[in-house]
Amino acid sequence: MTEKQQSGTGKRTVCITLESDSGGERIVRRMTGEWFSKGRHAYLRYAEPPEAEMGRTVTTVRVEQGEVRIVRHGDVSFEQTFVPDRRHYGYLQTPQGRIELETFTQTLDVAADGPDALLAVRWSYELSVMGQAPERCSICLTAVAVPE
Q1: Which SUPFAM superfamilies does the UniProt entry name for this protein (predicted)?
Q2: What are the tens digits of pLDDT across the range 65-94?
């Protein structure tokens, strides 16, 4: 992370763009949320948009160099960690039941792209749901400061 990300502790309103590619299906979502930092971690927090079909769910993304952790609370609960060359187990809890997830992260790049880009994270991984054959996925998550 950059020095700016490590030293700032105030919350900032941000425009978040989430681009995901899973099994050839590409989804792009834009949300408003907040960015803040604590110690060596940067955090993004946002309410899932209606098109995500997660009801009233809030997502928190904790980022540090070499690790991303995603936690969702609300109508949908979810936890998953991504670290390059590591396998992690997580879950997705919906009203219909709990789904076990296994990821193997291949790449992870954390950066800031300019004075307004507070965070840019890209990662690729293999996802196995409930022991099924893994599917290759990638995510690009950016947070740009909203002018005050």
Answers
A1: Lipocalins
A2: 999 999 999 999 999 999 999 999 999 998
Cα distance between residue 17 and residue 31, in whole Å: 7
β-pair type (87-94, 97-111): antiparallel
Residue 49, judged by CB atoms within 10 A of its CB (0-12, 13-18, 19+), counts as middle
pTM of this structure: 0.88
Contact 25, 8 (CB under 8 A): no
44, 143 Cβ separation under 8 angstroms: yes
Question: Taking Cα atoms as reference points, which of 44, 53, 63, 48 lies closest to residue 2?
Answer: 63
Q: Which domains does the chain have, with CATH numbers?
A: 3-145 (2.40.128.20)
Contacts of 7 (CB under 8 A, 6+ apart): 37
Mean pLDDT of each 10-residue bin along the chain, 148 residues long = 46 95 93 93 95 94 96 96 98 92 97 77 96 95 91
